[in-house]
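Hello K.,

You asked for the raw outputs rather than the summary table, so here they are, unedited. I folded two proteins back to back in the same session to keep the settings identical. This is the first:
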Amino acid sequence: MKEPVTVFFTADNNYAPYLAVAVNSIVKNSSSERKYRIIVLEEDISEENKAKISALLPKNFTIEFSLMSRGLDKISDRMGNRLRCDYFTLTIYYRLFIAEMYPKIEKAVYIDSDVVLLGDIGELYDTDIGEKLIGACRDSSVAGVPELCYYMEEGVGVPRNEYVNSGVLLMNLAALRKCRFEEHFLTLLSTYSFDTIAPDQDYINAICNGKIYYLDEKWDTMPNEGYAENTEAGLIHYNLFSKPWCYDGVQYGGEFWKYAYDSGFFEELCNFKKGYTEDKKSSDSSCLQLLIKRGGEIPKQEVTFKKMNEMGKKIRI
């Protein structure tokens, strides 16, 4: 009998419908011969929504909703702490505290809520990453944007082909505890308060570079019009603005609606899409342009991950 699979999500009530779709897709592609434990680090998810999500699970699954127990008072709503330059939520930081919050768990998968699984997440969990701190996929969603590649290399200080997306992480929790990852992150945050484009992701890359296992790209396949569809995809990640609940014609969008249909939130998701106005789409476009612009500007600041590292300050673990 294989060991149980532990999967972490983080979500607030706004993201409950997408969390339900992700959970539904995990269930539909799981093995009936194995046990799965889902832990949701949450912020204000309603009891009604928790019940709807829990109702999706068969007997070999358990789910726990846990309010974040770490103090995040040092993280304020400013541009450098916003997701996509337009959305502030503390939940994106929760993954950085999992190791210390759950000291009895040695290994787990973390995934964002804007995903669908096309394969058994147990296969990802079983990947042997040795002594590496995390397993993750290279971030293909921004690989073709010169300003963002410049930001990766000259701001975060990581070669563009080594910069990973933090939406899917195979976490060696024992190793993260051993190297005091949480303590180091909080020290960097309070000491430098770096300006960032992808807040949690940039810290993960700056801190863990050199101790990352690069997963098969099928486990973090993202819509990208510049690439043909990946027929071997095991997980679709609707990263940045490529949301099928906002736009028509999103690559792999059909997979989202397949699992949305019986997620308990189908009508709500359809209504959300119908109400996604041209003004909102225009705002998305403006935010994307701002994100790209900041990619060219942040490396020129006096305090960046790369500059502090070059000065001999301890950035990487």
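The second followed immediately with the same parameters:
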Amino acid sequence: MKTEFNCAEHETTSVSLPRFVGYFLRLGTVGFGGPIALAGHMQQDLVDDRGWVRKEDYVEGLALAQLAPGPLAAQLAIYLGYIRGGVVGVTAVGTAFVLPSFLMVLGLAAAYVRFGGLPWMQGMFYGIGAAVIGIIARSAFKLTRLTLAKDKLLWGIFAVLAVSTAWTSQEIIWLFLLGGVANLLAKALPSRLQARSTVPSLFTPVTLGAFGASGTLLQIFVYFAKAGMFVFGSGLAVVPFLYGGVVQGHHWLTDHQFVDAVAVAMITPGPVVITVAFIGYLVAGVSGATAAALAIFLPVYLVVVLLAPSYKRWAKNPQLNAFVRGVTAAATGAIAGAVIVLARRSVYDLPTILICAVSLAVLFRWKVPEPALIACAAMAGLLLRHG
């Protein structure tokens, strides 16, 4: 998925690492609007206005974020941290960017556990769950336009994953990878042997599951680390993967709790994948939330630390690009399928149908911030359920 930004040429301005990290702490605290909006803020603030980052470094970081697994905005922020301060910069920027939303989700999760049984909170999430389905449907539509264009093979991969996800309520990983391989063979067939040494290196962490897990915290960490390897472009790409494992595999959450977890991620700033902290809290308290959050961002961190030094050598590899485009099409199809799966649990009567339909119509017609839309849905749910 390629996104273009008009970056004006600027000479870089010297800035201390604490001040540079402070910017990402602020962005993580107030940054709403999804990955593209957050990436746009970084370009405007760091490249155009302040001159802290070279245009070339920003563009390279954006390309890496679109090529490698991991939520786009977090991947870009962490890469810029690497450019500014190496491994120390990666660690500091990554922590600063994620910490605010993690703490907010932790507070919301604690309130959810404490008050979740009360009628007023049930009423709020009755409306919120329906609105979230509209938001995910809108995101799936936007991602489809961005990633598939008029490529028939990518549309085919999209359709297979959409149908399989909707039918099985799970994200079938071998189909996910098969989509990447199919596009690689179709678009880069003459040099396919070279791809064998390039592609697997990005997906090696998936084998973490082979080590097994004896305790709940280790199970949480291993599961979410694997999940982090299948987030391409939008954090919503992890939703269908999580649903299959969290609800159906491990039975950690119910259907409605899972939709509520996605909703919490929508109303907080920062990366959408922070929803895993909410899930982890419901399973094992603060320790579970911490393990889940650390694990989901571990692949992002490792990709930057391990691959950034040699990035220029492999970034334009046609085999790798073809593979990633296929996987991204599969991820987009899985999100579309997840809309159907989650809608079965959250849109089940006339009021929720109306809330979902109105939310979708508003998103297509106006640029309304998602937290504002969810707040309105919460009030509607409260009135309809307990009015």
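The first helix runs from residue 17 to 30.

Happy to rerun anything if the numbers look odd on your end.

Regards,
P.
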